[in-house]
Design brief:
Blueprint: E1 3-4, E2 18-20, E3 25-28, E4 42-44, E5 49-52, E6 66-68, E7 73-77, E8 97-99, H1 119-151, H2 154-162, H3 171-177, E9 186-190, E10 193-199, E11 205-211, H4 216-229
Helix pairs in contact: 1-4
Length: 241
């Protein structure tokens, strides 16, 4: 539950070898002064709210063997010099807009779009797809309700009785089902999050949607989808748990 920013004065700890500040509520950027921790071998800043660039001063940490900057909002180029030559994609996954070497499973920096996108591009890429999706869902609801009334609802009643009852699923169970949200189980990555394939302990195959919490629209959009789809029954529609 540690909050605030990482103090620059931490650079005075010249003999510090392991620094683990993961799973807290730290904000701000990674200070350049971390490059002065010449004895550092392990650095874990994952699962915070850090943003900005990864400082190139970390390339000078010759003894650094492990780094984890995943699950933040970092952007820009991943340094490639010094110890960064040996790090893998797991060290940088689930960030905002990192770029760099293809082996790190990020886009090349020349292809990353700049932050200053205008309102029209934002509308076309973010708002418009949501509006179209909502319209399609509403149309499908109207069509299926009308069809159900016409057919007397017999078919849907039989389908309803065959559905599994809703139950709570813990984060731990989802993590186990997806092998820790491993990239090998990644089905698709979109503007609002990622979808992983998972296998629950009872043998049920599920699709797990992980939101990008920096985008409020993603959560709202999925809530609208759930409200509509939980009232629909069709063999080609995913059942919502």
């Amino acid at each position: 539950m540690i909050s605030g920013s990482i103090p620059g004065a931490i650079s005075g700890l010249q003999n510090l070898q392991i620094l683990n500040l993961s799973q807290n509520k730290l904000v701000g950027g990674i200070p350049d002064s971390l490059g002065s921790l010449i004895s550092l071998t392990d650095l874990d800043l994952s699962q915070n709210n850090l943003f900005g660039l990864i400082p190139r001063s970390l390339e000078s940490l010759h003894y650094l063997e492990f780094i984890n900057l995943s699950h933040n909002s970092l952007e820009g180029e991943i340094p490639s010099g010094g110890p960064f030559k040996n790090f893998t994609a797991q060290s940088f996954m689930f960030n905002k807009a990192l770029c760099g070497n293809a082996r790190l499973q990020v886009p090349a920096c020349s292809k990353v779009k700049k932050k200053g996108s205008n309102a029209n591009i934002f509308f076309i890429k973010c708002i418009l797809p949501i509006m179209v999706s909502i319209i399609l869902v509403v149309f499908c609801v109207f069509f299926l309700v009308k069809r159900r009334r016409k057919n007397g609802g017999d078919t849907n009643e039989g389908t309803l009785s065959a559905l599994p009852t809703a139950r709570m699923i813990s984060y731990y169970e989802l993590s186990q089902a997806t092998n820790g949200f491993d990239e090998s189980n990644l089905l698709v990555r979109g503007n609002f999050g990622s979808v992983f394939k998972g296998l629950l302990s009872n043998g049920m195959v599920v699709a797990v949607k992980v939101f990008n919490l920096d985008l409020e629209l993603g959560s709202k959009s999925f809530s609208v989808e759930c409200k509509a789809m939980r009232n629909l029954r069709h063999r080609n529609l995913m059942k919502i748990i």
